[in-house]
Amino acid sequence: MQLAGSITLQAGLGSVFVMIVSLVIIVLMITALKINPVYSMLAGAIGAGLAFGIPPSNVRVYDAAGEFVGLQHGVIQTVIQGFGATIGNIGIVILLGCTIGVILEQTGGALVIANSMLKLVGPKNASLAMMFSGYLISIPVFSDTAIVIMAPVARTVSARSGVPLIACLGALNAGIMATHTITPPTPGPLAAAGTLGVDLGIMFALGAIVAMAYSIVAWVWCSTFCAKKFPRADVVEGIEPLPQGKKLTAEDLMIKTDKKLPSTLMAYATLLVPILLICFNSFGTLGADPLIPRHMHGFSNFIGHPIMALGIGVLVAFGLDPSALSREQIGKWFNKSVDTSAFIILATGTAGSYGFILRVSGVGEFMGQAIAATALPAIFIPFFVTLLLVLSNGSATVSLITGSAIMYPLLPFLGLSPVMVALALTAGASFFYHVNASHYWVVVRSANLSMKEGFFNVSGGTAIGSIGAMTAVVILNMFF
């Protein structure tokens, strides 16, 4: 006998219709009726679940012989399951990431990082610096965490340089989403490579090229079209914009403040220590002859786990301003981080509930199988499979796991190398992130964007980036 759980339903065209209608209703609730996104997505998840045919309450399930095989969750229990699974995975990570971001912002650490970036690339290239930062940080760090930590830096860079916030934040997100979706050791690409039997070294090397194409195309979108549509630079307390109408010197680029700033080394250490811990564990334990001895893998997995790595990052952040350390100050930082992360965690959880309802409905698998059965050119089949999956469930990781399972039995008939199938899957796995994706709400809330700004910046940016990545895959397919 199985434990109670959610059983995937058989989907059809009616399920696709329900998904589209539920998405439209959620968007209208948020934009037209001004209902908080948390409540909108919760209501949308319950309504969509009932429309898909998920029972109102738990029901007993029997096999063809009449034997009891388990309980199928009702719609409320399924919503709870999706919420818990999502928060269980990243809730604490978001909280710790917010804590690092709060301490960086309040001690001036974000200002120090912004100063170094502006001095290195100049104010006109500020968004490009944010793109490269996101690209590197997200190789080992989960995308939501990377946004939470780096959003204060993006806001400070925007306020000082005068570059529109939408350009700085969009460029940051472009780099983050590219490597999160396309390169190992993040779980989705890792799962796709494992299912399809792709060598991780080749997957990482070619994935880095595809991810750069994604980043550049999405950066151009955010720094041109989006920046013109939403030209406002951010306003950050204590940050004066650069003087206009004169030739700027290196000194002009520096953000001035009356308070004593932390050292550049400590500011970057706060970001890099958790990144290096995660990266060292991820790469150090791979392969037949791993860098970290096998008897050390338990310890490496412990300190390299995102929760522990970010917890150590919080301790490092305390060193940004040792003179300010006191129980009262630490208490203020922690209270602020809880306040900052509360909405992000709740929105992430309810987005997870809605995505889980869509997953249980089977609508993603139905659309993926339908695409796989078409006469599309072979290289585009895996791309559209994960594109449809991510539109329905909002998770690149789930889409890559499901998509690679769909594509595996088709490999002998496609005439493609497994690595090209895997990369085409990754290219489609972050297409048009919208309200059912937890990452969408993390970005929007981290910089207090409007829904309209979120759609252009996050949804539009990920769609354009996905197309750019697939273009790179098509070109690479000529050689591999």
Description:
The chain has 480 residues and is mainly alpha-helical. It is built from 21 helices and two strands. Strands 1-2 form a two-stranded antiparallel ribbon. The longest helix is centred in the last third of the chain and has 35 residues. The radius of gyration is 23 Å and the shape is globular.
Topology, please?
Layout: H1 13-31, H2 37-52, E1 59-62, E2 68-72, H3 75-107, H4 109-121, H5 126-137, H6 143-161, H7 165-182, H8 187-196, H9 200-229, H10 250-253, H11 264-284, H12 297-303, H13 306-317, H14 327-361, H15 363-372, H16 380-393, H17 396-407, H18 411-414, H19 418-428, H20 438-446, H21 451-477
Antiparallel strand pairs: 1-2
- Helical segment count: 21
Structural class: mainly alpha
Strand arrangement, major sheet: 1-2
- Order of SSEs: HHEEHHHHHHHHHHHHHHHHHHH
Q: What is the strand content?
A: under 5%
Q: Which features does this protein show?
A:
480 residues, mainly alpha, two-stranded antiparallel sheet
Could you give a short description of this structure?
The protein contains 21 helices and two strands.
